[in-house]
Amino acid sequence: MSGLLSRFGARLVFSNRAISKHLIPRSFNSPQGVICLSTVQKTRYQPHNVEQSSRGLDKTDDITRLEHFLRKQRLKGALYSSKENAKFADKFWEDIIEAGDVLLAERYLNMRVRLGLHIDAEKVLKDMREASMLPTARIYGVFIHQSCAVGDMNQTNSYLRLLRDAGLRPNSYIFSQILHGYVKAGLPEEVSSTQELLSEIGLWPSRYAYEGLLSAYADLGDKQSLLRILDEAYTVLPSLVNSDENHFGREISPTFLMDLYTRINCSQSDSNATCIEILEKLPSTDDFFPYDFAQDTVKVLLAKGRPAAALEVFKIMRPENATEGYLHSLPLYAATGGLNSEALEPFWEAARLDSKQLMVLKNKCKLYFNRSNRPPSTLANQFSNYIEEKNVEAAIDMLKDLNRTNSPIVYTFMVPKLMRLGYSLTDLIERVQNPEINGALAFGYVLNSVLSIDSKETFKEDLKKCLSLVNEYRAKKLLPYTDFIRVGNYQMEKLLSNILSLSDMSEIEEMNKSTIMFEVFGILNHAMSKREFHSLFAQIFEALLISKHRHFNNVPKNTVIQLVADACARQNIVFDKTDWLLSAMRSAGVSEETLIRLTVDYSTNRLPFADLNTLLFSGRIAGIGSKSNEKSSTTVGQMSVSPKESILSVAQSLVRLQKENPSEYENKLNSIENSWGIQKKSILILNLVNLGAEDLVERTIQYLPENQREKSEPLKRFAHIIRVCSASDANKTKALESVKETIQSLTGLPSEDLFNTLRGPHMDTLFRCWPVDHVSDLIVMVKKVSELGLNSVSLQLAGVLINRGLVDQVSALLGKNTTIPFTFLVGSPRHPLTESAFHSTMEYIKTNDPKHIPGFVDYTLRNAALSNNEDNLHQLIRTAVSPAYNVDLTEICILPTLQVICNRLEESKNLPADVLQATRSIVEKYQSSKQKVSK
């Protein structure tokens, strides 16, 4: 039986939530990608007696063994070597294959790669094929993670082609791994090219992409590049947000920052190294702070012999509040890291221990504690004891010392007990005087009011009271609840049981919908933010899937899952296409129509992967290095195919053939019309617009479906503007009259038409050649688009205006006192800054954002080095080191920039003497860094 229980086992045993994201390479030269499992203690699920599977895993024995393995790794992972981890992990693969559960396989493989254990992709695919198991995108994603972690981009390309051939699409995480892999491979040119290509399809800049870059630089121990890119991410990501709706998805999470901190410190040769700059990015203790993850980080760093780095984390997590059990566990990890008792003395000082406590800890410093025997948190027990003793004052006093990280215990445990004692929310807020938990208190009153609705006679009245309660709390700014949501399985089951007891059974039997369920969930929707409401639904599905109950109020569990899925879809909640819950819902009988309504592909909804693969890898793999000569064997090797011509190259060849070979030109167009997909044709059109190929744009638009031709009509006008304004012939003045008419026709278009055409590779070219006299018209159009959510277009235009010396126009676009992120000011490899643009932009940066002058100069020179204009690079170097700016290139250029500049200088046949002199120091620095890496 590889049904819901196996899926429960997959979720429980190989859950991403159970695995922390700490990278802990065994030594400075050890393979990257090794991750330690979290040591944060979780409540252990006790498997109940169920029917044994007719195939594969014994659900009461093997699932327990799997759970025990993960629990053991979660507690002791930092203490095991890769060999020891592999010894345990290898036992389970045959059982998982025999069970035939793909979800279980996903989580097992994900666990292996995060532990740094090798995965034989060929064997995995062979075993799954023989077991009639279809690999998912996550399976291929694990392979890609493994190859990118070591910078093997040839192998990555093979896996991506396997993914495409399987009819699957990658997710944002896979794209971030591609960037990660290019950094690991030492190919900054490919990093830049990939960023440029991803920006054309809306995937750069993004949080996922930045995290891929940051983790790679951390693994390599390149602290300068890491901090520069981290600063860039914090500058760029907030500027892309137009509203609160997508704010969470653009933030770099505190847990990732601590993971980054662990990676960079474990990659340094100096065991006393720290990186305070990362910790300074963490939220203060008054904001959301992942204390459990911070505690885990301290242990991992101690286990890796990094006491100084561990101490810095310990200091920011309120060490004086550290529990006795936690402090007693630190010697175990310190001993594993080869440290002695003296290394822990700064921790005891930070914890402000008295002499007696200090003596006890010193005496126990060499002992190994079994943390699984550590008593659970006493917070809930202490509160219950106060209530039972009728010492309510003491119970309320406990609330005064809580913070946002304690929110779940407030609304699920403490509020219900206080409500039963007759306390109102107003009374509690006035007595507790702790604004940090006001939201949790308010949500607790709403949640428990909803849970108490269990009477058909008073249902409508109770529902109205709950809605009134929510409206009252929203008016007082206590709701919507926006902090972490975690509701226990008991509350979930009670909520569903109550709803079903009140529902019309005939309605449910007909499987139309549950009106009452929709209304009750509507109350909760009104009481919390969209992100938390999504999380609540995910937890409801999880609670159902692992529940031991087969029926709720005589309604079969699968039927309940179907009802909840319908209510979820009607509340406009969507899940990532790769989310395991969708597969579990399908197994429970949720209709495909409902699943479609519940599904959104966050990463690839604009482009089929066949085209993305061409964009990312066409013609660019051959020069990767020695690894390109290695032959892939058997399955993987046989599936790899030759790279195809890039879409940009096709566009350029069409423009050339139109003049040189009309016959071949027609043949190529006919092939495109008959064999290319719609979205690939759309990308070709955008590249033709960028080239100003007006006639070709008009012709290829006819290859699109009729409903898309009209939407693409403005592209012909953009191509006309680029062609005329980029020309240098004598007829340009006369042609500019037609440009004026074209611009007037564009300004009258509605926002929706502009939204579909004002994005893509042609934007930079269009903005840079746009007539100065008509910049105000361009600003009007871009502002229309920005109102629909494309804020990055406004920033892109603002950057070009500053490059062109039109700073006075920027305020009309973005308003006064808006600083443009420096990454929008640095040009691109296609359009590097000229000397005059550098001067104009540097004046703006010096006045408005002087702290980012190093980042601006570094990025500008990198783009110039990646371009085809060698003379322009030389002139920019002269300008940067001139007395006017006196830039020290060895100080401001990070390693990727040094690499591309040095490579370009080596290729130069006639390097001017002054440029040679100006770059001598950076060449020496780059050569020195290469020697360190080789050692």
From TrEMBL:
One Pfam family named in its UniProt record: PPR_3
Record keywords, A-Z: Repeat
Key word 4Fe-4S present: no
InterPro entries assigned: PPR_rpt, TPR-like_helical_dom_sf
PANTHER family: PENTATRICOPEPTIDE REPEAT-CONTAINING PROTEIN GUN1, CHLOROPLASTIC, PPR_LONG DOMAIN-CONTAINING PROTEIN
Protein name: Pentacotripeptide-repeat region of PRORP domain-containing protein
Organism annotation: Trichobilharzia regenti (Nasal bird schistosome)
Phylogenetic classification of the source organism: Eukaryota, Metazoa, Spiralia, Lophotrochozoa, Platyhelminthes
